[in-house]
């Protein structure tokens, strides 16, 4: 008996050990190191000696470019979260309704999720939304006699948002549609039968009072994931808008800005780390509020 | 929980596996069998065919050490900056710098001694930004420059003379803009990135003065930069082209009548258009203005983290100071660059005819090199401001005011350290 116990501990460590060590080595150590760096003047070094206290933090919060990048992020998530939510839910409702070819449509809408952000961003930039007359969007506009538009270079009106938002919608709507489909299939048909008996009209009334409330847990998960994904926005922004000379001062989310501060030629790792810590705190606060607001972790029956 | 000897061994083995993976970086470091040291030499990826084979040939010809060349595609500046923080970085590397922070941070070795007796043969304009505190921190390899290409036939059709002032450039670009052809291509961002300080120099100003003060604290700066917005507002600029300013494709495909690009594009333009093109410097603006073109040079530098600094310096001296035959081959046989050595530049027959000769004249007479004190932080701040001036029509006065403030702070910071 005794032997069995120590065997279990042994196997526990054999299986968990490498991952725990990896987690510590590649996640916790860099994380704490970054916090450490944020209190130093760390230009081009990861072992700085020049302690500056909270100077990096005050400089970062006073930096107009950083605060405007937070604004950019806010605009982006206000746009992308509801849009993806609505589109994914709409797709799921439609795919769930059709009786034939369901598997086909499910796969078709899900396929873009398998495409890489970088590849999709390049296709959007080079062939669909390039600024010259033979770009796809400009060709279509040309049929109606419209002038060519430089989608990614025009700031008035900010057409670049159209490119950024559509590429992400295309990429991620299918994935969330699958989550919603799973949620829809878990709703008991008896609820719909009972609603029909009670005289609920199919359509909006049933959706409003049965389907939508029953999808509550799925919705919470989807919104949480969408917000976190929006915070991580980097790939498509970087690939759509950066060039050899850097990045334009608009549509610059926090991660892109910090990337240029800390890892660009400036290599200001102290400032970059301070920015990263500020961003992490914001994410933590937002997530806590979100969890409170949605009542995450509360029992279903409450 | 008790930790038995076996558990300890188990975790130890697991960690051992991890570290074993970590050290396998696929490169051999240190001494090679013949007792010679191995030097890692990094280059950024050049677009021209044959360059990579050439640098490998030079490296193989060195007999005092084994040189392993790494040809690195992608974001080279970021890669070297990160690699220099560790001891597994290169021994010798080419760099679009070295930057002031790299010099002050002690990341690159002092190479002054390599220039004994030959210092005067290096192009002074590009040697100046490699010099700090009276010491030289990199050996310039080749000189690159940028200028304006224009299509003679298109200008003639529109009845436009090659522009000699910025105002004429604005008018010409407008006159040349047709339904399917734009007048001018300054890069997909509207010019803020590639032009940088060039318009300021064309107005007779500078980024940082020789004595280390702000060089554009002058009303003329705002006036000149404001004219760049006119180009954008007139819709004369080509934007969103599939390839950016560094590639002549947009010019060759007839998407634009004029394009700002580099000397490296000249062979391709010549091949496609024959005589139907000319080159111009960035035109002057205002009463104190003079035409301007940027010049710059990649330099060979030695990392102070290298375990073989002495050997690395000897190798750099051999390749970039002594072997003028290789330097000539590197500058002129593949792409199109001006040799960094004045004696070689004078000899080069390829640079003495047609548009190439004009370009070399512009680089010699009107070339300015970005000052070392113009740090990446300032570049970003200035480029952002210029971007807002050009595209958003932001007030050049107030935008420049905040850049000037930032420049003063940054110059203070770098002088302190």
TrEMBL record, chain A:
Gene source species: Streptomyces violascens
Keyword tags: Cell membrane, Membrane, Transmembrane, Transmembrane helix, Transport
A Pfam family reported for this protein in Swiss-Prot or TrEMBL: BPD_transp_1
Subcellular localization(s) per the UniProt record: Cell membrane
Classification via SUPFAM superfamilies: MetI-like
Transmembrane helix is among the record's keywords: yes
Stretches assigned to the ABC transmembrane type-1 domain: 74-290
Superkingdom, natural source: Bacteria
InterPro entries named in the record: ABC_transporter_permease, MetI-like, MetI-like_sf
Gene3D superfamilies from the UniProt entry: MetI-like
Transmembrane regions listed in the UniProt entry: 12-33, 70-91, 103-124, 159-182, 215-234, 269-289
Protein name: Sugar ABC transporter permease
Primary location group: membrane
PANTHER family reported for this sequence: ABC TRANSPORTER PERMEASE PROTEIN, INNER MEMBRANE ABC TRANSPORTER PERMEASE PROTEIN YCJO
Ribonucleoprotein found in the keyword field: no
TrEMBL record, chain B:
Pfam family, one: SBP_bac_1
UniProt-listed CDD domains: PBP2_TMBP_like
Keywords, in A-Z order: Signal, Transport
Protein name: Sugar ABC transporter substrate-binding protein
Cell inner membrane among keywords: no
InterPro entries: SBP, TAT_signal
Protein's organism: Streptomyces violascens
Family: Belongs to the bacterial solute-binding protein 1 family.
UniProt keyword Transport present: yes
